[in-house]
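Dear colleagues,

For the upcoming journal club I promised to circulate an example of a predicted protein-ligand complex. I picked one with shikimate-3-phosphate because it came up in last month's discussion. The inputs are reproduced below in full, followed by the predicted structure.
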Amino acid sequence: MNRTIQPAGALRGEIMIPGDKSISHRSVMFGALSEGITEASHFLMSADCLSTISCFEKMGIRVDVDRQSDTVTVHGLGLHSLKEPDELLYTGNSGTTTRLISGILAGQSFDSVLSGDESLCSRPMNRVIRPLTQMGASIVSEQGNGCCPLHISGRNLHGIDYISPVASAQVKSCILLAGLYAQGETSVTESALSRNHTELMLSGFGAQVKSEKTAGGWKASILPEPKLTGQKISVPGDISSAAYFIAAALIVPGSEVLIRNVGINPTRAGILEVAKAMGGDIKLQNVTSQGGETAADLLVRSSSLHGTVIEGELIPTLIDELPVCAVMAAYAEGRTVIKDAAELKVKESDRISAMTAALSAMGCDITATEDGMIIEGGRPLHGASVDSCKDHRIAMSMAVAALPADTETQIGDADCVDISYPEFYSDLFSLMH
Ligand code: S3P
């Protein structure tokens, strides 16, 4: 399905962002491995999180989904309670489901097969196959290309000290989850700190997890065989979803938008630093904290933005927001350079080429580089027909780019927003008057 986005006047009003995708996935996974009930409220009812639920249901876990109240109740039976699935575990478009579950499956006493949609089946899985194999797991990529389908035979695992070549929370989490079943301690060291929801949440469920900065980088370690206990989790709003409204309010003249209850965990909040560095007017209000996760309301007013450099340790803290950062850069005066972000090429699409093609079609001066993009901002953009590459974050970023343009923009396969934010268009339109 295509969508037409009309140029918009000032955006005004309040918006409540749906629950955080990373925390929603993890509440189901960790709840399934715990004893007792885990209740996650403000759960993100999107296609990706439903893929996670379906996988655990296939392994015998009861999950009650109440769409009226956005609450999910997981009836956990303990670390060793999963049953052998009698069909393939289908993970859809979700890299998080695939990579995190592979760590859990590696330590089970049964065999399983993991696969997903076309995009998922082109994403690199060697990054988890390699460390899990070092821990003693048996994982075979069916096509021999390091991608899904993956055939996983559960084995007795042993702990390793893994130096991760990428700063990736999916890789880190996969290894820590396998570490729950391994003999001895397991650790993962990464050069820059990726999102730490796994460390915070697993420790809240009762695991012994340690995080420290060492000479070699950021190290997370875990001890095996904890007794995990079900938790009540109030999922904060997803800053990755809030990012579209932050950007839209900043670039559409005359806008003022209050974005309620947004998770601002520092390992996720790089977008706020970038917006500030570009001259954006964002005020934090009503800061609260639960289970180590901080949330706040964000009051965002339109601002004259200027270019900046986005690089280094900041990258993992806004990896999913880089497409919409490119949109802010297109409307900012001067040059913005995004570098150290080669990971963008192996997300749901190649986000460097997807954003370069889509913003170029609107008249933006943008150049793809090996590890990012260079944007010469400040030119007026015009409406165009753009390809989302069936990637939810490209579709939402381009919907934002379309708002200050002079004519309407058509977004191809625009319904892919269902992956992380099914209500995106209606929430966006609710701010237009
Ligand atoms: C996620 C980690 C990130 C992010 C993804 C969700 C997670 O991937 O892009 O959308 O929940 O752990 P990487 O850590 O592999 O970069």
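Two points we might discuss: The two ends are 25 Å apart (CA to CA). The pocket of shikimate-3-phosphate is lined by residues 22, 96, 168-170, 173, 194-195, 319-320, 343 (CB under 6 Å).

See you all on Thursday,
B. R.
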